[in-house]
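User: Here's a chain of 379 residues. Predict its fold as tokens.
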Amino acid sequence: IKIPQGFTVRLFENGGYDGSFVDLKSEVSDLNTINWDNRVSSIQVFKGNPPTNTSTGNAAILYQHSNYGGRNISLGEGKYTAKDFPLAQDLTAISLSRGFYIRLFEQDNFQGNSIDISTNIRDLGEMGWNDKAMSLEIIRGTAPNQQFNNNNNTWGNANNNNWVNANEVIIYQYTNYSGKMMNLQEGNYGTLRNMNVGNYDISSIRIPMGFTVRLYARENGQGSFVDITQDMDNLSRIGWDNRAMSVQVVRTGNNSNGNWNNGNNNNWNNGNNLPNDNSNNNNFPNNSVFYGNLNRSYRMAQNGIDYRVRIANNGSTSQIQTQSGTSAWTSVRVVSADNQRGYYRIRDNSNNEFDINLQNNGSSLILSNRNSSWTYFAE
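Assistant: Prediction complete.
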């Protein structure tokens, strides 16, 4: 195919502009080199770039460069080895349709290290996966909790995580904790105007254990709001991407004086009684029991391996152990414990830290390394 400068040609695998597609901006002397020889059933030609609202019902669009640039292909649900995947070891960004997730493999034929991704990623380099995937699987549904591995008494996926200061929230310009960032201590922020992460500019947020962040749609604590108590890599999941204009950071159990940092006389609601944002139907964990006398083990099965967390509380003393497969129980250090809310921070013998949050009156727990979370259910 020959393509004049300034044009884009979109080749579709199926008729009616459906199925997998690939965008080309320059000539290709042999479509077999990109695995598209004799595959095309319909074509679109655009002057300039294709419109962003073009929809073909596909599950994922894969991009050669960051920020959704370079050559791109669209793939439907299914498995793709290196020969079916023209961007093998050349994949940098991903756009996913709602209701799908993608599993990337470091080696061909679905071998080696893997990662599940369930949101748009503008730069896989931020996750250590730039130009790394050789095969992949696109799956309909919700991504399962990624497994951890502590056979050697270390937890997976934690070594490259930078932890939030225990007393500061971090807001980010882009999803997946990227772009400009700003640390916020406990207090009220009546406007984000002229700040590093400004009005209508928050897309992800990290929250240390024991804090609640309230995002407001208007300045000075006005308009609709939402309360968030844990890390969120993409605020669009709760309808709050690029929406906040003011922020309140509250340490649970601490009283706030209600005065704005910018000197206005508007008062916040009592920080100890933050209501849910019923207008958006967001249901956030709200534990109401005391976990000081809880003794229970929790289990998660992944790929035929059982992973367990065991909690033993006696009043203010908490002991937590972990187990992987048939290995012996491993004790981990409890860095901090909040038995009232069921929050614990633990540290393994490699100094990797994790948060545990008990859910549903202790019938399940979520373990997080601030990059991934795993759900365990009581045995």
